[in-house]
Amino acid sequence: MSVVFFAIAAILVISGGVGVVAARNIVYAALSLLIAMVGTAGIFLIGLAEFLALVQLLIYGGAVVIVILFSLMLTRIQEFEFLTANKHWPIALIVAMCLLGLLIISILIEDSTTTTMGSTNITELGLSLFKDWAIPFELASLVLLIALIGAVVVVRTDNEEDR
Amino acid sequence: MSLAEIIGLFLKASLLLAFIFIVVLILTLAERKALARIQQRKGPNRVGFKGILQPFADALKLLTKEDILPASANKRIFWVAPLAVFLPGFLIWVTIPLAKDVVLANLDMGLFYITAISVLSVMGLLMAGWGSANKWAMIGGLRAAGQLISYEIPFIMAILSIGILAQSFNLKEIVDDQARWPFAIKQPLGLFIFLTAGLAELGRTPFDIHHAESEVVGGPFVEYSGAHWSVFYLAEYMNTFTIAVLTVLLFLGGWQSPTLPFSGTVHTVASLSWFLIKTALVIWVIFWIRGTYPRLRIDQLMSFGWKILVPASFINIFLTASVLYYALPDWVITVVSFGFIGAIFYFIRRGSLAGNKQDTVKIIKTSDIRAQLSNGAEV
Q1: Of A54, A67, A73, which is closest to B112 when you measure between CB atoms?
Q2: In terms of residue numbers, what domain contains B127?
Q3: Which CATH number characterizes residue A56's domain?
Q4: Which of B22, B109, B167, B356 has a CA-to-CA distance to B366 between 20 and 30 Å?
Q5: Among candidate residues A48, A64, A68, the one with its CA nearest the CA of residue A56
Q6: Measuring CA to CA, how many Å separate A38 from each of A100, B10, B91, B115?
């Protein structure tokens, strides 16, 4: 049964991914990204990582894609035509090949061990996040804060009339 | 998972869908009647006894109406958008319990699931706005996205503070935790934030700026008609019901508080009725707010969200966590929460007074006129 679900999720991810690069309309590309993200959440779900699946939906499906769409719709769409021209495909190909090689190597090196099925214990997750991994967690929040301040600095103008 | 189980789940989901359809039919009539009562009208009173069949007439009209596709609209996105709004709202219902054992799937991370899924409905509104190829729809869609993203933060934070208080994300455990005291008493600030942000998530008055008729015509729904528009309508009322149900589950003790003394089937029926009575009360409050408050302006909406609700929700979560960590008694949260609610209302009042000096309109009371008339003065 899980094979069927995996097939559905995989089709979603692959078709979404192809849609992102192949779509001529940039809004279609953003919506394809959403489909790919939902498919990824499905794959996490099959891997019994419920928490990760929900975080995937919340952060990528809910926030990131919406912000992308929001910014697309607020900017003039004519300026984005060069994005769909796919001029930089050789560089993208090299990067994608490197990533693929890395993934294949890591799969070959790592022994595939099957872990026993267990529900996500959210209490343990919280404890390990705030005790063992407290500093990386805080650093991650610092990165977000810097991005936020950066956005304000970029957007803000000192011109009185623009306010 | 066998075939029989899948068919069983499918049947249960259909039953749930039918239940929600019936609730929506009742809610549309109830809202019109409630608003009519507030505005001293009779409301719908022609179809059936005292207008009781009005929702069926409305549904029939919507389904037989022509479904118009605007010439320059993006066909695929335009048709998918209503579904993209409805589906997340319906998926939430998978984990919402109506009584102790009346639930499709009791997830351990139920609350987190609800927050994660509900976020996706913003996408549908954006798609509707963009796909319609209409500037009002476009502006409405962007307004919806901005508003919903802003108010998601206090909404999720209020939910999280309940998770901290109950030490669980399982909705059943949260309800059982309120057997003695509902969380509304322990956390009034949380209830205030949740209900306010919930109303904003619904896009109901006073937070309906994304489909404000006087500003953006009908917002993202302006080009829709017939069956597709009715899906949006359905989603709106379903989400109203969801927010009311969540308020009851998280803050008013669900089918608990007090724990009902029965057992077996009687207990299920009694707790279901008790739960639905509470939900009806919350829904009445929502209608009441709609009937009495004017619409906010978009800048007021944004500043209220970011300057008042977001800090208040952070304070709420910090307060709950520190009271639990230092093992202080629960009434500390209550007292401090009421203090903060008072502060919020003070700021709102001061802000609204600072904006206008109230010297543009002279208020004339009828009693003054009568007094002047009796004094022989000409008015």
Answers
A1: A54
A2: 71-374
A3: 1.20.120.1200
A4: B356
A5: A64
A6: 21, 22, 14, 15
Predicted confidence at residue A84, as pLDDT, reads 59
Task: Spell out which residues of chain B touch residue A27, defining contact as CB-CB under 8 Å.
Answer: 77, 130
Tell me the Ramachandran region of residue B355: left when phi exceeds 0, alpha when psi lies from -120 to 50, beta otherwise.
Answer: alpha
| Cβ(B95)–Cβ(B149) below 8 Å | no
Q: Does residue B204 lie within any of the structural domains? A: yes
* pLDDT tens readout for residues B85-127: 899 888 888 888 887 777 777 777 888 888 888 888 888 888 8
pLDDT tens readout for residues B203-249? 887 888 877 777 778 788 888 888 888 888 888 899 999 999 999 98
Residue contact A61–B119, C-beta within 8 A: yes
Test A73 with B123 for CB contact under 8 angstroms: no
List the single residue in B113, B123, B169 with the smallest CB-CB distance to A34.
Answer: B123
Shortest Cα–Cα distance, B132 to chain A (Å): 13
Q: In this complex, do B113 and A54 lie within 8 Å of one another by their Cβ atoms? A: yes
> Do B82 and B218 reside in the same domain of the chain?
yes
Q: Is residue B218 part of a domain?
A: yes
- The encoded tokens of residue B257 equal 């508080």
Task: Please give the pLDDT value at position A48.
Answer: 77
Domain ranges, residue A17: 2-86
Q: What is the pLDDT of residues A11-27, one digit of tens each?
A: 999 999 888 888 777 78
Number of domains in chain B: 2
**Of B14, B37, B64, which residue sits at a domain end?**
B64
Task: For residue B112, count CB atoms less than 10 angstroms from its CB and return exposed for 0-12, middle for 13-18, buried for 19 or more.
Answer: buried
| Same domain (yes/no): A14, A81 | yes
Domain identity same for A72 and A19: yes
Reported as a pLDDT band with limits 50, 70 and 90, residue B50 is confident
**ipTM of the prediction greater than 0.85, yes or no:** no
Same domain, B275 and B358: yes
The reported pLDDT for the residue numbered A117 is 60
Q: How far apart are CA B104 and CA B9, in angstroms?
A: 8
> Do A137 and A78 reside in the same domain of the chain?
no
8 Å CB contact of B109 and A34: no
Closest residue on chain B to A41 (Cα): B116
